[in-house]
Design brief:
By secondary structure, the protein is α+β, with helices and mostly antiparallel strands. The chain folds into three domains: 248 residues, Bira Bifunctional Protein, Domain 2 (BirA Bifunctional Protein, domain 2); 54 residues, no CATH class; 87 residues, 3-Layer(aba) Sandwich (Rossmann fold). Helices cover 37% and strands 21% of the residues. The protein contains 15 helices and 16 strands. The protein has an eight-stranded mixed beta sheet with strand order 1-5-6-11-10-9-7-8, with helices on both faces. Helix 5 packs parallel to helix 9. It is globular and about 70 Å long.
């Protein structure tokens, strides 16, 4: 009698483990909603060209890892290897550019890559991702990092570090590519076959190589952060300033580029350092960045974007290995009514981020303005969102140490000390 085994690089989730999965999935849904993200579900397969066009012909995903096939009509389709391209396609196809911006989306579902299976990495894996479309501000970059960082903290993983770099925009990257070509041209004989191909297609991809000889060449290579145009340089500085003001640890990672061609400017990874054990690639729990040209690549108008993706298998394995308690699948949500935190000026925006984090920790869904709008426009945005409360922090409020808190249902407004906002609105 024939016997069968699951395909290499896949896993069976049995009932005891499935309960832990369900608890994590419920937490992710609630956590994403607390930042004002809405769920999106896209097809498991898409046109192959969507991924080859957005990920880049030189990326390992396109060259080696895609599960592609011809359907009965002769169309080339691919099981999705990542979630951002399909979400960008859905944003354009469904007219979300006409919706109030920014559009904030989250997804959770299976992805497929023909990769070498190892601990926490499967050929079919489950990815949680978020995307923000329509927000060029560095605050959006930081919010994306906060979603991941604070999720890990809620799971008891508190020894975290953000690895941060900028790979520039179209303006400054062309000059940087010329510098890379000049540098690597003198080391072609030492490079692996894959990197020789990367050199011809996109030299930035050489930074992704795991070959030790190629890695050694990177020590003397030009760095992207040293070739940024003024706009990209100031964007990176502001991201670091906001992270520092929030007390979030970050490290400069000059060789970090991410593996997909659609990234621009900010790229990051978040790693967890166990109390006992050495950090390594398997400790990287999340990665993402900005992709300001992606919507154009899939047929839309120029639209800024930023997001991340994380593998649930690796996250769950880390949580259980560290002996942390998993949340249960049951239980009610937080208090009703979204809070919209508006601010004016950079100092006000920083305080607004602090207030929002405390409110979310207390269980209140809270949305920050990420577009630097006028106070009047922020009130309109809060109304369109259906927010119950508006917290406004400007220069006068900062000087007084009190925010203006308005009940948008009744119109009642009062001043509340920053350290009492959670007490007043958190439950």
């Amino acid at each position: 009698m024939a016997t069968f085994q699951r395909p290499r690089g896949t896993m069976d989730v049995l009932p005891e483990a499935a309960e832990k999965w369900r608890g994590l999935e419920v937490l992710i849904a609630r956590h994403s909603a607390s930042f004002g993200f809405g769920e999106i579900r896209t097809p498991i397969f898409e046109e192959s060209e969507l991924f080859s066009r957005t990920s880049g012909a030189s990326s390992d995903i396109v060259r080696k890892e895609m599960y592609s096939f011809l359907d009965r009509g002769g169309r080339s389709l691919t099981l999705r290897p990542e979630g951002t391209a399909g979400t960008a396609r859905a944003y354009v196809e469904n007219g979300l550019a006409s919706a109030p911006q920014p559009v904030k989306l989250w997804y959770l579902g299976p992805m497929f890559r023909y990769d070498r299976p190892q601990a926490g990495r499967y050929r079919q894996h489950t990815q949680f991702g978020i995307e923000i479309f329509g927000a060029p501000s560095p605050l959006a970059d930081v919010e994306v990092m906060l979603v991941a960082h604070d999720l890990f903290a809620r799971l008891g993983l508190d020894n975290l570090a953000i690895h941060l770099n900028s790979i520039g925009c179209r303006t400054c990257r062309s000059t940087y590519h010329e510098e890379l070509i000049r540098y690597f041209s003198g080391h072609m004989e030492r490079m692996c076959d894959d990197c020789r191909e990367r050199y011809a297609r996109n030299p930035l991809r050489i930074f992704d190589c795991k070959n030790e000889t190629c890695r050694a060449l990177l020590d003397g290579a030009p760095l992207s952060a040293e070739h940024l145009c003024p706009d990209c340089a100031s964007h990176l500085v502001r991201v670091k300033e906001v992270l520092g003001a929030l007390g979030i640890r970050y490290r400069d990672a000059p060789h970090l580029v991410r593996g997909l061609d659609y990234y621009t400017r900010t790229v990051f990874e978040i790693s967890y350092q166990p109390p006992s054990g050495e950090a390594g690639s398997q400790n990287v729990l999340c990665g993402g960045g900005r992709y300001d040209g992606l919507i154009e690549e899939v047929g839309g108008l120029a639209t800024p974007g930023v997001g991340f993706g994380m593998g649930i298998e690796r996250l769950l394995n880390t949580v259980l290995t560290e002996g942390k308690d998993m949340p249960g699948a049951a239980g009610g949500g937080g208090p009703p009514g979204v809070v919209f935190v508006g601010a004016t000026g950079f100092a006000g925006e920083i305080e607004g981020l602090r207030v929002a984090r405390r409110l979310r920790q207390a269980g209140r869904a809270t949305v920050n303005d990420l577009l630097g709008r006028s106070v009047r426009a922020q009130f309109k945005a809060a109304d369109k969102l259906g927010a119950r409360f508006m917290v406004l922090i400007g220069e006068e409020e900062l000087a007084a140490g009190q925010a203006a808190v308005r009940d948008l249902a009744t119109g009642e407004q009062r001043s509340v000390a920053f350290d009492r906002i959670v007490e007043v609105l958190g439950s």
